[in-house]
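Notes to self after the Tuesday call (sharing in case useful).
The group wants a holo model before anyone commits to mutagenesis around the pocket. I volunteered. Ligand is zinc ion. Logging inputs and output together so the record is complete.
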Amino acid sequence: MDSSVENRKIWTVRVSNSPNAPTGRPEIWFHSLIHAREPESMEQNVYFMYWLFENYNIDPVATYILKNRELYFTLVLNPDGYVYNETTNPSGGGLWRKNRKNNGGSYGIDLNRNYGIYQYWNSSNNGSSTVASSDTYRGPSPFSEPETRAVMKFVNSRNFSAILGAHTYGNLLIKPWAWQDPIPTPDDAKFNEYLADMTIYNHFTIGTPSQTVGYKVRGGADDWYYNDSVHSPHRIIAMTPEIGTTGFWPTQAEIIPLAQSMLFTNQYFAMIGGAYVYPVSTTLNKTVYSPGESGTLKIKFRNKGLQTAQNVKIECTSGSYYLNVPITFYNYSSLSSFAGDSSTFGFTISPALPNNSAVPVLIKFKQNDSDVVYTETKYILTGNGSVTLADSAENGFGKWTTNLGWAVTSSQSHTPSNSFTDSPSGNYTDNSTNSMTLNLPVNVSSSPITLLSFWHRYSTEAGYDFCNVEVSSNNGTAWQTVSSYNGTLTTWTQQNIDITSYANSSSQLKIRFTLKTDPSVTSDGWYIDDIKLNNYTSYLNSVNTTVNLKTINEGFYNTSLNSLNMKDTVTMYLRNSSSPYAIIDSTETTVDSLTFTGSFVFRNAASGNYYYVLKHRNSIETWSKAGGEAYAFGGIMSYDFTPRQHRHTEII
Ligand SMILES: [Zn+2]
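Result:
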C-alpha cells in the first residue's frame, strides 16, 4: 500500500498456501491499528495468522482457509501514530489515536472518520468532530489523508468480498450503517446472522454503532467498504470488532486470551468470503435413549458464505461400535449463498451398550466433495447417567454462593414449592452482575460426558439484560458462557445443554448462573429450578469382553505328539440359551497348538446367559454344556471344552 503522512510504508501481507501471486480465490482483508492506541487489534490479527500457519494440514478449517481463500493482513494501518506512541511511551500506554498530520496548531486526523463518500463523511448525525484538535477530527475533506487514500486505492485495486477492521475495546461487534444509524442496510438480515454467529463463543455485544459503542459515527470505514468502493453495487461485507474490556493497553497476561476471544470470529469471517456451509441446528429426537433403541439426528445447515457451495456432503458417522448409522452421508450438488437444507440420519443403539453411557456421532460438513469445513462430535445418551448434582431448591441455598442477591423464593417454582431467583424482592437492579455459583466443584473426570439441565423462566430487557449460564473447568478461576437468554419467557421451560467440551474432563467443574444488566430498564429477572448434572461414560470401540477357552479341534489333534497339528482359526458364537438359540455375537481367534487355548473378544452382546459355540472350518458346531453360561459384558470369562461333559453337539 502507499505510505503514511510521515512517509512510512503501510505493509500488507498476503496469506494463502500460494502467497506469491493472486490466486483468484475469494479475498478477505483484515486490518488493525487504524487507531494508534489500540495494539490488541494488531495482536489478535497476528495470533490469527499464527494459528493459520501452525495448523495448516492439521486443523481442517485452517487448511481449508489457506487452500481456498486469499487473505490480506494490514497489521499497522496508522504507523505514524503507533511510532508516536512508542516515542512518548516506550513501555506502552501511549494514547495517541489519530494520524500525525500537522493541522497547524494541532496534529492528527481520525482516520476512521475520514472515509467518504461526502454524504457519509458529512452526515447530520455529527458522528465526528470538525475541530482539528479533537480526537475524532474528520479532516478537511473525505479521503484527505494519505493513509485513507492508500486504503481506497488498495480496496479498489482488489476484489474483496469481506473486510474486518479491528479496534479496541468494549467486546463489541458492529455492523453498518454508521452514517444513518440506526437505519438498517439492505443486507441487515445477513449482517444480523453474521453478528450472531461470530459472537457465539465470545458473546460480544452486537449492533450498529449507537447500539454498541453508544454514539454515532460518520466517515467510518465500514460504510464506504460496504457501499462505495469501485465494486459497488457488489457490497463488501464490512464489520468492526472492538476487542477487550480493560482498556487500550491490556496487561501482558491479557494479550493472548483477548486474541483467543477473536479466533473463531476471525475464522468465520475468513470462511464467509467464499462458500461456507455452517450448521443451523443439530437435533436428536430425544434427550436420552435406551440401549437397543433407534432414533434420528436432524442436521439443519445453511451456506453462510457469499458464494455458491459446490458438492456439499453432510456426513454423520458412528464413533462407536455400539451405534449403527446405516446411511452416513447426503450429497447436495450445490447450495447458493444463504440457501439452507437439512439431513436426517437414523441410528440404532446396540442393546449391548450399558445403560447410563454415551456413544459419539461424528458430524462433518464437506465442500467440493472432500474439503472439511465443519466438524462436531455429538453424544447420544442412554439412561440418566450418574447424577452428580441435583438441586430442586427445596433444601435451601446451601449448595450455592451469591455475590449479590440470589436466593430461594416460593413466589415461583417448576416443582413445588421453591425455585432460585436473582431478585427475590422485586425487580433486579441496573448495572449489576449478579451470580449464583456452585460452592463445591464436581469431579467429572471418570464420566466426562456432561449434560447440564434446568428449568427456567425469565423477564429481562430484551437485548440488554442477559441471563448467562457459565461453566468453569478450573474451580472458578476462568468461566465460559455456554448459553445466554434475554427478553421474556413466562412458561417454565427445560434446557438441556451438553457442556462436555467446556467441562473438559475436569475434576473441578463449577457452574454459575449470572444475571448481567445494563444501566437502564429493569424487570423481574430469572427463576431457575430443578438443576441437574448428569454424567456419562463414552463408549468408543474399546470395551472388550473376553472369553478364554480351552478346546480341542477334533481332526487336528495329533495323538502321538499330544498337540494340535497346526495353529488354526476358530469361530466362536454366543447363542441364546433358549430356543431358537439365536446367534447374539460372533468372533474369531487363533487357538494355540500347544496349550489348546484361545482368547475370544466380543463387543456386542449384553450381559446374559448364552451357549458358547465353537465352529472350526466345516466341522459341526461344538456347544457348551446344557443350560448355557453366565456371560458378563466387559468381563473376562473362562470355559474348558475338553471334558466330555462340557460339550454336546446334538442340540439343533
Ligand atoms: Zn478504534
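Two things stood out.
The first strand starts at residue 13 and ends at 15.
Residues 39-54 form the longest helix (16 residues).
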